Amino acid sequence: MEQNKHTGTHILKGAMILSIAVFISKIIGILYRIPLTDAIGDAGNGIFAPAYQVYMVMLTLSSVALPTAISKMVSERVAIGAYEDAQRVYKIAMRYSLIVGAILSIVLWVGADVIATTFFNMKEAAWPMRALVPAIFIVAIMAVMRGYFQGMNSMTPTAISQVVEQFVHAIVSVGLAYLLISTSLEAAVVGASFGTSVGALFALGVLVLVYYMMRPSIKKRLRKSKTTTDESSGEILKKILVMSIPIMISSSIFSIMGMIDYTMIYQILPNTIEKISQMGLLDTLPISDPSVLLDQASIVNSLGGQFSTKYTSLLNLPVSLILTLGMAVIPAISASMARQDFKDVRRKTKMVLKIGMLFAAPATIGLMIFGKQIVGMLYASAPDGGELLTYGAISVIFITIAQLTTGVLQGMGKQAVPTAHAAIACGVKVIFNIILLSMPSMHIYGVVHSTTICYFIYAALNVIYLMRTMHIHLNVKQIIIKPVLVAGVMGVVSYLLYALLYKFIGHASVCLLIVIPIAAGVYGLLGLLTHTITIKDLEHIPGGRKIIGLLSRD
Length: 554
Description:
Elements: H1 2-31, H2 33-62, H3 66-79, H4 83-120, H5 126-131, H6 133-151, H7 156-180, H8 185-223, H9 233-278, H10 296-326, H11 330-338, H12 342-378, H13 386-392, H14 395-411, H15 416-437, H16 445-469, H17 476-505, H18 508-529, H19 535-539, H20 544-553
């Protein structure tokens, strides 16, 4: 019993380490785009975005599902003392990964020109794609090593390598962009792309170093190997694929959707910009640099860059935080399902949605009201794009509900359900992309609105499924309406305060930095006074117990 308790504590500790590393990596990945945009501008981001999206699709196909599958197979064999079999899983997976990584790398290197011109109508994106080719091969190797370490109940190597990867990636990408911008914009974008490959190489170095440090203990375990399942190499590979392919399909939907978004932006938007030009309305576009408006390709690149950097990156910041907090309950839901304790599953589902909405509501209102000021503060040299946040901020709520309910369904062992729902939502998104991007009154805002529609449908389908199958009766007033209303009041107060401060100070960034913590305090206080935030909610929020302690003194 004591051993089981110790093992459970060790697993939870490992999961916590990995969660923290993932969150830190995401934050670095989002924040480094600020100095990068300062170097290459929206036009450079417009070239970088499609190249990086193709890279993400390649990663999904080659390696995103491998760590989960390998860690499961390795841990199962380690649990029964079959260390030789665990090592065989590692070696066979590595051979498979090397072959797939090499094939996809060659395909991208050879086909970069065709992909860049056919999908994005942008030959400038070809060399940035080629700069990402080494990363595809390296990450495929890392995926196997990370899965192996996780299967051995060692999460630290994966965590350290992820942080190192993003940190080096950020430093090198920004450094090369600044160094090469004097040569040409395209050269700077190639340098920024190559930073991804350098970051992956350093992360691989960390994993290789750890592996060689562990070799004595690995060899010792191999000598103690008790049992063997006598599995053939083909059987092991088949098991890896059986576990990997469903995860790959699920992950690939939104990666491919991202690529479709950029394809449609660069294929449809030029015709829309031409219509806007003929109407004499180019000055209505969210572009402040008059020189950009002289060239149609520059306009499209600038708008595409705004979408990829200002909108997508800043929207992902609160979403990453919310999901990191909310997904911690998913293993607990899996445990409740294993016990067939459906009442507990319903309770935990309601809890995770409530906690998610308590963060999503103020994030939505804040981005909606201060989108322009936030972009101006973070991207001082390229301040365009705040309107995208203003119009698209509402999607934070739907993304939160969609992703948290997806996690709940995965915890219930229903992985195929959210995958099907995501496919339906993305199909609808394609239709709205075609319609809205073609409208001169919408232009780049079309893809923002289609994203909101997509996640609304995704969230709705997930919630309806949970209500029908698990008989979960959600208190919409408590979970959604009250947090949004409280956040709305917070928004009114913070906007009035901002307007007042701006009259006296006259500096938008300073006013914003003063208003943000006050707005958070107003939201928290109103939430407690209206019982929108309860003591039970605080128990599940980091730092919440300290707040409970302060409240109990009064």
